[in-house]
Design goal:
binds zinc ion; hydrolase activity, acting on carbon-nitrogen (but not peptide) bonds; Polysacc_deacetylase_ArnD; TIM Barrel; Glyco_hydro/deAcase_b/a-brl; alpha/beta; globular; NODB_dom; seven-stranded mixed sheet; Polysaccharide deacetylase; single chain; 8 helices
Length: 291
């Protein structure tokens, strides 16, 4: 039984954010094989399954115009890293507030993709991410999401965690504590009501916050305030670091935007993102697995 569980866990890891349970290993119905044959079948099937998944991934990478097949992320660390506020990003009392960070402390060659706001609702983007098995985390603002809650429900069904980016995307440090709390707790309520789960991650609009922001976020049930170290657009990358280099554990920001806002589509942005990080030997991991 333990062997069987381990095999299932390994397959689940490989299948990433696949939709549905079609990667699960099930014994063939009505099979009369003895215990030994069954054991061997269990050993062989995952290998065959992995080969089939690999072929599908290679085909998807080609179909979506990637230069290389995206790398499979390593298993997340058994012991979660300790997340603290990045130096220079502290507010008074930050030790007891949700940490603000741009990079997850890890030596693994992984980056985390986070996508904000929610203006563009491109079905091709959902297909692309699902077929390429690329995890990402969404930070949603209700004034854009409410145009089509269903789009983000499909995203959630594909394994994406929907997180808090306020109701109306204001410049939070310009608001009182009470109004900031309404923006953050209000979005917690919307996400819980529409998607059944209260987020634990919050990203302040524009990355701007003050002590009140983080106190309000904590009061609304938020545990982490990830911002970003790079931002990827359809036509370029922008970097926080002076040397313009990607580092292990970096959080990368992008936006749900389409041709109205930039010269290309969501798949164009993902292509730019994946081509660069794959070339540099990075895999995309799921942020929630490290928190
Ligand atoms: Zn935003």
């Amino acid at each position: 039984m333990r062997g069987g569980l381990a095999v299932l866990a390994a397959v689940a890891l490989v299948s990433g954010c696949t939709q549905g349970g079609d990667s699960e290993v099930r014994p063939a119905a009505g099979q009369q094989a003895g215990e030994k044959a069954r054991k061997e079948a269990r050993k062989a099937e995952p290998a065959a399954e992995r080969r089939a998944q690999r072929r599908a991934l290679v085909a998807a990478a080609k179909r979506w115009g990637l230069k290389k097949v995206p790398l499979t992320p390593p298993r997340p660390p058994a012991v979660k890293p300790t997340i603290t506020t990045r130096e220079g990003f502290e507010v008074d009392g930050h030790d007891s507030l949700p940490p603000v960070f741009t990079t997850v402390p890890t030596r693994q060659k992984v980056v985390f993709l986070t996508i904000d706001d929610g203006a563009e609702k491109d079905p091709a983007f959902l297909r692309m991410m699902s077929e390429l098995k690329i995890p990402y985390t969404a930070f949603l603002s209700d004034y854009l999401v409410k145009e089509d809650y269903g789009y983000f429900r499909k995203m959630q069904a594909g394994g994406v965690t929907l997180n808090n980016h306020t109701l109306r995307h204001p410049y939070l440090p310009g608001l009182s504590y009470a109004r900031q709390k309404r923006e953050i707790c209000g979005m917690q309520d919307v996400i819980e009501e529409r998607y059944g789960k209260r987020p634990t991650l919050f990203r302040p609009p524009f990355g701007n916050y003050n002590e009140d922001t983080l106190r309000a976020a904590r009061a609304c049930g938020i545990r982490y305030a990830p911002i970003w170290n790079e931002e990827v657009f359809v036509d370029r990358w922008e970097y926080r670091e002076w040397d313009r280099k990607i580092r292990p554990g970096d959080i990368v920001l992008s936006h749900f935007r389409g041709r109205e806002d930039w010269k290309g589509t969501m798949p164009d942005m993902v292509r730019r993102f994946l081509n660069k990080i794959t070339e540099e030997g990075y895999a995309v991991a799921r942020l929630e697995d490290y928190l």
